[in-house]
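Field reference: "sequence" (input) and "structure" (output). Example, TetR/AcrR family transcriptional regulator:
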Amino acid sequence: MGNKPGRPKNQTARREALVDAAGRAIAERGLEGLRIKDIAAEAGMSAGSVLYYYPEMDELVLEVHRGAVERYLAARQGAADGATGAVARLRALVGSGLPGGSGDAVHGLLFELHRRADRSSGHATLMASLFAREVALYATVLEVGAAVGEFTLTEPVADLARNLVALEDGYGLHIVSRNAELTPDVARRLLLGYARTVTGCPEL
């Protein structure tokens, strides 16, 4: 009986370890052909243990997607919160939304998981939620910048925020796909150029 209070916590830790291991396996091998034994090997567990906690592979992959979205958004929010002033916050957001290179594990994982959206309502919901929350991050910075007179916006805030996120996604896909003509530095320069145009702020 003395072990019972610790059991739920232990199970939670094992589930988290499996989600992390599955994320690594997906990033390394892709979703196609992903096998239980690949995840078990990453987690240092038996295949039976994986199936005990996640009898359905789809449930585990959905948890990986959910966790990846939350970590990515937290990092972007942290980048913005760490800057002072609308100009610095907008520059920080642009920098946080691009892959660091073709081998960027976070963006590679998210792009791989987003591929499930056309076949799964759960993955589609996560993808739509990520987009909406990224748009909200940009919208907040743009609204504040306009309110304090740092930005003179050329279009409605929501439209500008959506365009910034869509540009990031498009550039990001090229970066992780090893398009040599679109490096992270080039993508950042292009995004900041767009931001300068639509905010009227030469300091960006």
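Residues 1-6 have pLDDT under 50 and may be disordered.
The radius of gyration is 20 Å.
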